[in-house]
């Protein structure tokens, strides 16, 4: 019984340790040999790339994106594919300790030995956590992968079809002679707006350090040379040789080429201007909705409900248009009904209070010769236009639309 329990505990410990690592077998499998789709191959050719040219990967947590970049004939890199990350663990920020289920952030290196063609998560490759920066800063963890199966415990998980293509990009690049490719894992795209949004986050100093490498790639479109000294990342320091330097040693004087340094300074100047504007914008309080805005929203909501019930309403949603812009002479206004509620204009005869007006006989002129009769001229019933309203003592601006119909429109409940 004790032996059985010990064996069970050993198996459980192995499962926890494995995390996202999958199988450790190195032999090839048919799924690891799937070629890239012809559509992608044609796209590479159009961009001046070959199937075996070097690759680089960028990961953005907040945007949930994994990008594959390849080197063109001119030596610069260009994006060739972008994939939606199916799942990633934890939250924005770096991984600190094994078991925190946090996906790493930083600059990592993948070599052929880190590729796993027989992963239990379809296909996988180890991103290389912990790197020199992580180790010198006391961060721990292992078996952090990009893999398939859409399941993550600290890894970046893709669908099987997605990881098959990502794996193929790396496989072909290694067969073309690339000895290692770089993975840049960021919390988000490091734009001025995003940096301003997260300026008060505890991880902000760490992210500003990553941003230098991000910016250098944006400027040059070449993966930066990454080293660690003084327990921090340094980029494109030509004073550090290929053998590197101790991660906790003092950094040698910066040896960046003058042209790159000037380009970086110009880039930063533009960034600082945009960052300052974004910071001011994010600091402004959001104005409370106005009473008119709430009333209009209520009006539109009622219009939508009426339309959903099949009632006859206007095609466009209503709005609280200022009275000065409304048309005073609506075609459905009855001027006679309106005239009954108004006093006659100066010098005009009063209208009958109850009956509709009858044709009025024109007065016979005094000069009419005896023996001739003049038929009374009928005066037509006034029509709804400004001139006839004026003739009947009705001022257009005083028309009361409420008297036009006894039926209460649906929007009257909102006080319009």
UniProtKB/TrEMBL annotation:
Coiled coil: none
Pathway(s) this gene product operates in, as recorded in its UniProt entry: Cell wall biogenesis; peptidoglycan biosynthesis
Source superkingdom: Bacteria
PROSITE patterns xref list: LD_TPASE (PS52029), PROKAR_LIPOPROTEIN (PS51257)
Every L,D-TPase catalytic domain range: 55-186
Active site (catalytic residues): 147, 155
A molecular-function term among this protein's GO annotations: carboxypeptidase activity
Classification via SUPFAM superfamilies: L,D-transpeptidase catalytic domain-like (SSF141523)
Location of the region described as Disordered in the Swiss-Prot/TrEMBL record: 308-333, 394-416
Signal peptide segment: 1-18
Key words of the record: Cell shape, Cell wall biogenesis/degradation, Peptidoglycan synthesis, Signal, Transferase
Keyword Cell wall biogenesis/degradation included in the entry's annotation: yes
Record-level GO BP terms: cell wall organization; peptidoglycan biosynthetic process; regulation of cell shape
Family, per entry: Belongs to the YkuD family.
Protein name in the entry: L,D-TPase catalytic domain-containing protein
Species whose genome carries this gene: Phyllobacterium phragmitis
Lineage of the species this protein comes from: Bacteria, Pseudomonadati, Pseudomonadota, Alphaproteobacteria, Hyphomicrobiales
